[in-house]
Amino acid sequence: MTWVSMAWLFVLFLCIADSSSLFLPDSKELRQLLSRYEGEMDQNSTGNAASNRTRRAIRWSDREEILQLHNKLRGGVYPTASNMEYMVWDDELERSATHWSEQCQWDHGPEDLLMSIGQNLAVHWGRYRSPAFHVQAWYDEVKDYTYPYPHECNPWCPDRCSGPMCTHYTQLVWATTNRVGCAVHICPRMNVWGEIWENSVYLVCNYSPKGNWIGEAPYQPGRSCSQCPPSYGGGCRNNLCYRGEQSHMDMNEVEKPQVPLPPRTTARPAPKPKPTTPKKPNIKCETRLRDKCKGLTCNRYNCPANCMNKKGKVWGTLFYDVQSSICRTAIHFGAINNNGGLVDVTRMEKLPFFVRATKNGIDSLSKYKPSNAFVVARVEETNADCYTTGAEVCPFKKPNTRCPRLFCPGNCKSQPSYWSPVIGNNIYADSSSICKAAVHAGVISGDGGFVDVLPLDKRKNYVGVLKNGIQSESKSNTEGGSFRVFAVRQ
């Protein structure tokens, strides 16, 4: 096998690596998959020429998902692109992709067309994969690509691909490529490197103008839209050069969906059960807040059992003096009982006095002297999945927001970025997947685990960084807040 063949094998592996089941020749799942793309073939095959013109090799929903994902990924490249053009759908490219996909050949083609277009291919069999899954796999080659800055291009830019292949990524983000057309075809028998795959799903995407010119960088770095071609008239949309009323010359009569597309096309996996091993206390019954909490926002503590009859003193009710025992205060307030448990502590401003009360078996004391204060709260624990975002669980609200302790499942690292985005580094946009951000930050491993989340106000800019096998996104002026994630030491 040649080096090129091995590289293609690796790319194909990216697309099918975590398929957990295979379709049987006459399975219910296979019939559903076939009907997804071929359901209208029978009714159209008996119609006239006009009805045949309405047939497409790709569903409208898949077409829109592919196009939206292309533009989202192109607008989020790092370093920022100054000349990245908005991409539109092209029916001629779709027709050429349809013709080639129907040949069921696992190779680029046809040769006479490849001189003028770019082309990305993907194939899979097994459980259903949306076309956007493969688009994301092409983009994820970015982890092996190092952008060649202008000073390195003298005059030709060096090839900075450290992996088997980066050309799918570079074609997808080639700045001057502004049209795409794709097709999906079910191949009854397809020869993939000497093996016959039955009922394989073949995706072909054609691009124009073509990219991947040797010795050139895929785009020019700089402020977004600062070097757009004059034909765009200064228009800019989501970091892309934009003409305003973009048109993709749709000459086929295809019924448009009347409802928004769902954010995902497959079901969420069931989260792994939380471990039941007891957690070790990280403070003693007598530990005072003054000894542990130095900043405005304090940490989360795990109190031991049997603190009710210990010696730690408590001053106040509802609002407590910082010299109070954290755990006995939590029992007094009702955040935990004598069995111990997790408690959230938040530092407050100085109060003029504190009043006593007997609650939950603990007598607090009065203090008529100004002192710094704190409050406590119960901590909930809940399961998250790889798609749970900060905005869903605990969006930032002033003056402070308390979040549950989350248990993340394993395998979030492998989830596509368009389902589980990670935006930023250390501080993440609250539209990010919490669990995948935790892996990116090194708070948990790929096997999952508990994390604590601290909601923060929004940031103006987020910078994408490749860490722990995950490439985060760069974004500016996003809506919503942000968050940080912290490790939980069991």
From TrEMBL:
Ranges for region Disordered: 254-282
Position of the signal peptide: 1-21
Cross-referenced SUPFAM superfamilies: LCCL domain, PR-1-like
Positions of the LCCL domain: 279-374, 380-472
InterPro entries referenced in this protein's UniProt entry, alphabetically: Allrgn_V5/Tpx1_CS, CAP_dom, CAP_sf, CRISP-LCCL_domain, CRISP-related, LCCL, LCCL_sf
Subcellular location: Secreted
Keyword terms: Disulfide bond, Repeat, Secreted, Signal
Highest taxon, organism lineage: Eukaryota
Gene3D superfamilies per record: CAP, LCCL-like domain
Classification via Pfam families: CAP, LCCL
Transmembrane helix among keywords: no
GO cellular component labels: extracellular region
Chief location category: secreted
Protein name: LCCL domain-containing protein
